[in-house]
Specification:
Elements (H helix, E strand, L loop, with lengths): L1 H12 L8 H18 L5 H16 L17 H10 L2 H13 L3 H5 L3 H7 L2 H12 L4 H8 L6 H10 L6 H13 L1 H12 L2 H4 L11 H18 L4 H15 L4 H24 L4 H4 L2 H29 L22 H13 L6 H26 L1
Helix pairs in contact: 2-3, 3-16, 4-16, 5-10, 5-15, 5-16, 7-18, 7-20, 8-9, 8-18, 9-10, 10-11, 10-20, 11-18, 12-18, 12-19, 14-15, 15-16, 19-20
Length: about 375
Amino acid sequence: MDYIVTTLDNLIHQTAFFNLTWGNYLMIVVACVFLYLAIAKEFEPLLLLPIAFGMLLVNIYPDIMMHIEDSPNGTGGLLYYFYLLDEWAIMPSLIFMGVGAMTDFGPLIANPKSFLLGAAAQFGIFAAYFGAIAMGFNDKAAAAISIIGGADGPTSIFLAGKLGQTALLGPIAVAAYSYMSLVPIIQPPIMKLLTTEKERKIKMGQLRPVSKLEKILFPIIITAVCGIVSPRSVALVGFLMFGNLIRVCGVLDSLSETAQKTLSNLITLFLGLTIAVRMQAAYFLTKQTLLIMALGLVAFIFDTAGGVLVAKGINLFLPKEKKLNPMIGACGISAFPMSARVVYKMAIKEDPQNYLLMQCVGVNVSGQVASVIAGGLLLNLLV
């Protein structure tokens, strides 16, 4: 009889009820809310759903993320091995390959001025960097946090891993992807505040056609230039441009389709799960998390404002018929294609005959390249 009682007592104490803290239960509730938003509201479901389910896993059974050195038998938890792919920058690089295969750089090639706006929209990254330093974060943590401003999830994860800030990976990734999904809410008020109705109605001419040769040379040249200017960005820029080269070369159509669909979806699924491993209550429910979310929002606002204001500045030197619609400067963040879509819809709302989609896309893809270069520059400075 004693044996049965002891066995039952051991079984009961091995259940999650006796091993979880109030923080774990809170994170489980948050995970359920995220699952609801992903499924019922279709709120970035491709990424939010695996993040939410991963959050559920690591808070119900924290040992699923057990490190090898903490394991009594020398075997780590299942998600620990997936997490290593993030830490080693494999997942972000593969994501960029898929993004490159899906991206048409034609509008950027046709309007090189877009590069200026893409670069200007990275201002918030450096503003957040100095803000984080002022709040007491060390330089490497500040750099990892600041890249949230580019609304570039893979680069945020890549930089956090390379700078040894894996403890902050969960809050950084959640902030980056959250603000990407909140582009339609955050950006329009800023654009309206910084522009007049007349400026928002500025029409821009159609972009010139881009030849196949230009599209093939573009990823090769960009990789070479970025490799010279910011060598540490090549891991991401190189994979981004390699994916694009597969798309435009015309001889690897089946691989291009695989990279655009199967590879991108599969890696995004695993990426979401591995992001969640750092969303255990012990790591996530801290004062640092709130500061990171706040700094990310500040960076996002500064990026949007920087792009719009630089576009207005460029207009001072352009003739009337060639002026830019300042709103396209807001597309310089890396949230592709969300930001381009938001600005395009705003332009149509102001004037139903004002079609700025291609110009918006050109600036948006330039922001993708610019945010990676900014991350590479921070790596060059700090590593």
